[in-house]
Design brief:
With 118 residues, the chain is mainly alpha-helical. Helix content is 43%, strand content 7%. The chain has helices at residues 5-13, 32-40, 67-72, 87-113, and strands at residues 3-4, 23-24, 30-31, 50-51. It is elongated and about 55 Å long. The termini are far apart.
Amino acid sequence: MKIYWEKALKLLNAGKKITQSEIDFKKEHIPVNEVVLFNEYKIRVPENLIFYDDDNIDCNEIPEITEDDIDSGKIQWIKMEEFPLDKEVRKWIINSTFKKLLSNYESCTKKCSSLKFF
C-alpha cells in the first residue's frame, strides 16, 4: 500500500525509512519547498508535479550585478567561441535572443514614454 506524500514527509521527518516507490504523489502539484525535503532523503519528485509559486518568490536577497563584480572576476562574460556550435544552431540562438531583446526594448520604451516627469 502506498503512502500519501504529505504523510510520507511527516514519517521521513520523524526518522522513518521510506523509499520513493512507497510514496503516492497522486499526480498533485507538490510545492517546491516540500520537494526540497524529499530531495534531502534522496527521493525524487517527478518534475511535472513540482509547483513553483513564482508570484511569491522573494528576490530581495539577490544582489544587483555591479562593475566591481565583473572587474573582480566574480561575474564573467562568456565568449561564444568557447562553445562550439553548429552554424545553424548559433544563427537560431542569436536571432531568437535578438528578437526577444528588441521586443522587450520596444515594450519598455513605450512604457517609459508615457511617464511624466515633473
